[in-house]
Design brief:
Blueprint lengths: L16 H17 L5 E5 L13 E7 L9 H6 L2 E3 L8 E6 L7 E7 L4 H14 L1 H17 L4 H21 L6
Parallel strand pairs: 2-5
Antiparallel strand pairs: 1-2, 3-4, 4-5
Length: 178
């Protein structure tokens, strides 16, 4: 159902159980962060109905401040999340769940207003709204997955240009809630 070896790329057809897995994790995360969890959403390709995806659930958590998230690190560890200390993205804290042989969840924590989490949500919403954009993104993912199945870093980097284009369109779209 879910899980993928770290660093590899394998796409599978959409699975309705992905949203159930997200809901279970959301409850656990909400319990840890309480009122500091301003918003918790299922993002990434597993959140887009009908889209092929790596079988890893992406979770976006908006908090008032990422500098104070450290106090929750131990409790996140108790439910299986480990911080990726060498993450280079300064707009987020990034946690992984599952062993390297079978990563199951990614938790992206961002400060409200930083734009990082908000852009992830806009991207998801736009793909759900605009089937052509979703198809274009899926086609790119499938092409890259064949070419870079053992190099997730390159696979991810090669998607970035299209992701930025879609987020830009989403920000201009009157149909997408901002």
């Amino acid at each position: 159902m879910i899980g993928l070896k770290r660093g590899t790329v394998r796409l599978v057809i959409h699975n309705l159980k992905w949203s159930q897995s997200f809901e279970r994790e959301k409850k656990k995360i909400k319990k840890i962060f309480s009122r500091k969890a301003l918003d918790i959403q299922h993002v990434g390709s597993t959140s887009v109905p009908g889209m092929v995806a790596k079988p890893i659930i992406d979770i976006a958590l908006l908090v008032p401040s990422i500098t104070k998230v450290g106090r929750y690190e131990e409790n996140l560890k108790k439910i299986g999340y480990n911080i990726k200390k060498d993450d280079t993205n300064k707009k987020r804290l990034f946690f992984t769940k599952g062993p390297e042989k079978k990563r199951t969840h990614y938790l992206h924590i961002g400060k409200v207003g930083s734009g990082y989490i908000e852009d992830m949500i806009l991207f998801r919403d736009y793909l759900c709204e605009d089937r052509r954009a979703a198809e274009k993104y899926s086609e790119l993912k499938e092409k890259l997955a064949k070419k870079y199945q053992n190099s997730r870093k390159i696979y991810t980097a090669k998607k970035e240009k299209l992701i930025k284009e879609i987020v830009k369109k989403a920000k201009k779209s009157p149909r997408i809630k901002k």
